[in-house]
Amino acid sequence: xxxxxxxxxxxxxxxxxxxxxxxxxxxxxxxxxxxxxxxxxxxxxxxxxxxxxxxxxxxxxxxxxxxxxxxxxxxxxxxxxxxxxxxxxxxxxxxxxxxxxxxxxxxxxxxxxxxxxxxxxxxxxxxxxxxxxxxxxxxxxxxxxxxxxxxxxxxxxxxxxxxxxxxxxxxxxxxxxxxxxxxxxxxxxxxxxxxxxxxxxxxxxxxxxxxxxxxxxxxxxxxxxxxxxxxxxxxxxxxxxxxxxxxxxxxxxxxxxxxxxxxxx
Length: 265
Fold this sequence. Notes:
Radius of gyration: 20 Å
Helix content: 40-55%
CATH architecture of the largest domain: 3-Layer(aba) Sandwich
Oligomer: single chain
Distance between the termini: 44 Å
CATH class of the largest domain: Alpha Beta
Low-confidence stretches: none
Structural class: alpha/beta
Strand content: 15-25%
Number of domains: 2
C-alpha cells in the first residue's frame, strides 16, 4: 500500500469510529507503530486529525464563537494563570494590544491590580503606557488603570462577544506601533489560528502584522478545534502562553517553528 493510500485508509478508519488508538490503527493497517505515528503526524499537520492521549480523533469544528457570558464560565483558573504569565512580559511604558476574550479580560484586570498595588507602595514600574483593544469589556476593565491610556478600535460590533471586527477595526491598527500583542483564540491547530468569520480574520492578521512581538494566549481546550477561516499561521507568533494540558504534538510543532512555549502549572 502506497503512503497516500494508507493515509486515506487511516483517515477513513478514524472517521468511521470518531477516534482510534495507535495500536488499533497499527493492527488494521498491518504496518509498524512508527509508520502509523508518521502518518498521523502528516495528517495532523494538514489539519485532518488531532492527537489525543493514546490515539487520534477528528478536529472539532466551530461555526460561531461562544458568547462573552458563556466564556466567563469556561476554565477560569487556567485563564487566570495564563493572564498572570502574560502580565510578566509587559514592560513599563509598553504599547500593548489585548485581543477580544475573557482571557484578555483577566489580563487587563491583573495589569490594573499590579499598577494600583505598585502605586500604593510607590515601588516598581506601573506597566503599559498604552492599551489598545477591540473588546468593550476589556476596555472598561483597562480603564481602571491609573496611568495607561486606553484605545478602543472602531468597526463592526460583534454584540455576542462585546467586541469590534472587520476592515475598519483592522485599518485602525495601522496607526499604532505596538510593542506587544496578546492574541486570543477559540480554535487553533498545528497550522495556526482559525476564526469563524472573515471580519475576525482581518483583525487578527492586522494586529500580528503591526506588533513587534505577538503571543497567542489561550487555554489548551482550544487546540484541535477548527473554524472556517485560517487567520494566522502558527509560526507567526513569537510565543504560545497556555496551560500544561497542551498535547505533545503541539509542543513539538512550536519547538520546530521556534515559537516560545510559556506553559503555566
